[in-house]
């Protein structure tokens, strides 16, 4: 099964279903800028790379939607620092 990050606009969060559970990132969006507030993986998925795959999907969505990212969450900020190829998306 393919893992696809979706944008749950009603809940203001990106979601990635993994093994019957959901990894998510809450955000605030305004004027083409997405502030990532919190990234969370269920305990059973921590250390599996699921949150990193979520972040990669968020980057891909931001790129296709011509949006910029502001990582307010420490995990999102650290992930983006480790992936300098995404630096052009930082607001």
Which descriptors apply to this entry?
91 residues, 26% helix, 5-stranded mixed beta sheet, alpha+beta
Structure description:
The protein has 91 residues and is an alpha+beta fold. The protein has helices at 50-64, 74-82, and strands at residues 6-8, 13-18, 21-30, 33-40, 68-71. It has a 5-stranded mixed β-sheet with strand order 1-2-3-4-5. A hairpin with a 2-residue loop joins β3 (21-30) and β4 (33-40). The longest helix has 15 residues, at 50-64. It is globular and about 35 Å long. The termini are far apart.
Taken as a percent bin, the fraction of beta residues is 25-35%
Q: What is the strand tally? A: 5
Distance between the termini: 33 Å
Q: How can the largest sheet be summarized?
A: 5 strands, mixed
Succession of helices and strands:
EEEEHEH
Rg, Cα atoms, Å: 12 Å
Q: What's the tally of helices?
A: 2
Mean pLDDT: 95
Helix proportion of residues, in percent?
25-40%
Structural class: alpha+beta
- Uncertain regions: pLDDT < 50 for 5+ in a row? none
The largest beta-sheet arranges its strands as 1-2-3-4-5
Query: Can you tell me the overall shape?
Result: globular
């Amino acid at each position: 099964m393919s893992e696809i990050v979706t944008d749950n606009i009603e809940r203001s969060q990106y979601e990635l279903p993994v093994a019957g559970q959901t990894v998510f990132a809450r955000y605030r969006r305004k004027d083409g800028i997405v502030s990532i507030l919190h990234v969370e993986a269920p305990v059973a998925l921590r250390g599996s790379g699921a949150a990193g795959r979520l972040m990669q999907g968020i980057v891909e969505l931001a790129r296709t939607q011509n949006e910029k990212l502001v990582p307010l969450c420490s995990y999102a900020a650290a992930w983006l620092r480790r992936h300098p190829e995404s630096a052009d998306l930082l607001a």
